[in-house]
Amino acid sequence: MANGLDTLIERGFFKQCTNLEGLKKKMDEGSVTFYVGVDPTGSSLHVGHMVPFFAMHHLQQAGHNPIAVVGGGTSMIGDPSGKSEMRKMLSVEQIAHNADCIKKQLSTVVDFSEDPTGDSKAVMVNNYDWLGSLNYLEFLRDVGKHFSVNKMLSFETYKMRMETGLSFIEFNYQLLQSYDFLTLYRDYGCTLQMGGDDQWGNIVAGIDLTRRMAGAEVFGLTFPLVTRADGKKMGKTEKGAVFLDPEMFSPYDYFQYWRNVADADVEKFLLLFTFLPVNEIKELGKLEGQDINRAKEILAYEQTKIIHGKDEADKAREAARAAFTSRGSASVDKSAIPSITVDRSELESGINVMDLFARTALCSSKGEARRLVTQGGASINEAKITDIDKTIDISFLEDNELLLKAGKKRYFRIIIN
Q1: Which residues contact 392 (CB under 8 A, 6 or more apart)?
Q2: 57 is catalytic
């Protein structure tokens, strides 16, 4: 059995490990139980959340045993890591709803089905199950005594928050996450925690607690925090986060997000966010100029297929190709492009161009539509519109619809009823 670490390193998932040689040796000896956690602070994960779970997929494929921890308990406090201010507090009911939604999304990457013996190929647990019933006095006495405040304040997470204010409730987060590791070791034999590099301090604390209270050697491994070539955070757009929930971010827009990544990011994202073989990805990474668009389409298709399924990926690819075909084509399926329906009578009367764009997902307001038009970024059926007083009427129709475009890459259909 391959230990899986080589795969993580080769595909760019490796930043640092508490004891790399020790972990390699343990993995060479047999399967390792490991965990990745995510706090259900929203009803949907976004693209950036998925990096650890793609790594989980590769280790699962190598024969190791995954545990996905949904942080129903820890999210009642909120992790201060990477945050400049305290998180919004959520109710137990909100957290439970979010946890249920997230379970379904993780299943697109991690195999939670049963093996022939009836055992689950991966385990999903909620840390509220053991944190929710803790006796605080006993917890402080038995667990809190192992933590040094001076050491906690030495971690970058707390250093940064000391400047803007760190609440006592957040100060407890590291204790709870450490207790997660101890509990998972005791109950499941879990010996490895993985996460983003901003989790290094929490992971190290959990390793230290498990050593002190259980006398066990366990390991921590972190991944680089993924950013785009322009330095911006992965999974963010001008319109907000790239959510996995199709009701919050359509499969077509999801496809387009990946289709429009920077050339410099294509190979890195293919390695991190698809399951294509490395040698195939390396060949795609060599493409330049217009040829790189083929690699981008493959990236977009593979990612959309993983998260939303093959049918949605096929529709999104077909719609994207149709949108980029000059003047469109009635014979090409454009149904995946986001759309609204407008009565023919309304278009016969005429609609101001800013009002029309403001009614779509291309612009969040009439002011944004004004800027789009005046800056030359608005087109309808490939005809550029620069006059904010322009009236869009029936004469603009092609194939009984209007294909609106914002900039070079964002499309929206107006279907006439």
Answers
A1: 347, 350, 351, 352, 353, 356, 380, 385, 402
A2: no
